């Protein structure tokens, strides 16, 4: 459950640290600890709480998971929840990353489908001057990593939409097509609910928490907010196209049903001719003079066939058959 626990002094790693030694390490000047956890249980979180002095409510939320994206302040520390997303076999999987931020520590607790932060750590360690700014820069790096992972998800959803749209305009609508559109709409709504609160979180970090995050780091969160706005615009545009595609799909279905009704009506009209004639001569009247005519049978059959043929040609020309 403990993925990595490293202490940094002046932006340079001074080695891995056990949880029991965290409080001793933090006694050094210009030092902070970056701890990464995954699916941490209550016992481990209680130990983390003791080392960093975290609030009971924040620990309770981090243990429970299934939290909404948010930011909460507890004394000198912050607690944040961010939703993560990535593609797995063309399906979007969502997870959560809980973050505890203090002046000299940063703790991440990952739940569900979320990517490792090892690349984030490597990138930060390659920039000691930036890492020397403290946990605030690490927070920015993690949030930027999470937001950047939204982009491949958007691209994957766009590809799925393009396939469904092609099927619709190729006049091959089916039940699978409409189910795919609804599934895509559901995933877009989930993604939108995950990213929209991030803008508010960035704004709050820039305005109200200068004591935890250095002033020269605050500007970085404006960049994250800009990325989120662009992603939100892409989602909004895709949702509009999705609604239009669903309407087009339903319109095509209506047109197809109308075509079927027209064909049935056309054949019904053709069959009405022999039905009417045969019903007429099936009334069993005693005196029907034409029945005594030698050529009455071929005349009736020929007349019915000719009228049916003429009606068929007329309906064919009108596009009903």
UniProtKB/TrEMBL annotation:
It is a multi-pass membrane protein. CDD domains: MtCorA-like. It is found in: Cell membrane. Keywords: Cell membrane, Membrane, Transmembrane, Transmembrane helix, Transport. It holds the Pfam family CorA. It comes from the Bacteria. The chain crosses the membrane at residues 264-283, 295-313. The keyword Endoplasmic reticulum does not apply. Its main location: membrane. PANTHER family: CORA FAMILY METAL ION TRANSPORTER (EUROFUNG). Belongs to the CorA metal ion transporter (MIT) (TC 1.A.35) family. This is Magnesium and cobalt transport protein CorA. It comes from Candidatus Methylobacter oryzae.
């Amino acid at each position: 459950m403990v993925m990595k626990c490293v202490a940094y002094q002046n932006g340079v790693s001074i080695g891995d640290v056990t949880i029991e030694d965290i409080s001793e390490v933090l006694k050094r000047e210009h030092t902070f600890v970056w701890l990464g956890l995954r699916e941490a249980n209550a016992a481990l979180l209680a130990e983390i709480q003791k080392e960093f002095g975290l609030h009971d409510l924040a620990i309770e939320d981090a243990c429970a998971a299934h939290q909404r994206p948010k930011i909460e302040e507890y004394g000198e520390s912050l607690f944040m929840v961010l939703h993560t997303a990535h593609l797995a076999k063309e399906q979007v999987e969502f997870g959560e990353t809980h973050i505890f931020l203090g002046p000299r520590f940063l703790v991440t607790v990952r739940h569900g489908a979320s990517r490792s932060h090892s690349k984030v750590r490597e990138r930060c360690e390659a920039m000691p001057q930036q890492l020397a700014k403290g946990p605030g820069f690490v927070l920015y790096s993690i949030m930027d990593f999470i937001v950047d992972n939204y982009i491949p998800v958007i691209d994957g959803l766009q590809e799925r939409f393009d396939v469904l749209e092609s099927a619709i305009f190729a006049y091959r609508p089916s039940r699978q097509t409409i189910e795919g559109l609804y599934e895509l709409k559901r995933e877009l709504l989930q993604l939108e609910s995950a990213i929209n609160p991030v803008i508010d979180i960035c704004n709050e970090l820039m305005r109200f928490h200068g004591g935890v995050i250095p002033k020269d780091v605050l500007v970085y969160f404006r960049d994250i907010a800009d990325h989120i706005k662009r992603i939100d615009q892409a989602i909004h545009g895709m949702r509009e196209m999705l609604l239009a595609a669903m309407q087009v799909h339903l319109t095509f279905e209506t047109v197809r049903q109308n075509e079927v009704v027209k064909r049935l009506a056309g054949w019904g009209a053709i069959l009405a001719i022999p039905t009417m004639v045969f019903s007429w001569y099936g009334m069993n009247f005693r005196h029907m003079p034409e029945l005594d005519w030698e050529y009455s049978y071929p005349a009736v059959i020929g007349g019915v066939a000719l009228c049916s043929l003429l009606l068929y040609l007329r309906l064919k020309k009108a596009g009903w058959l």
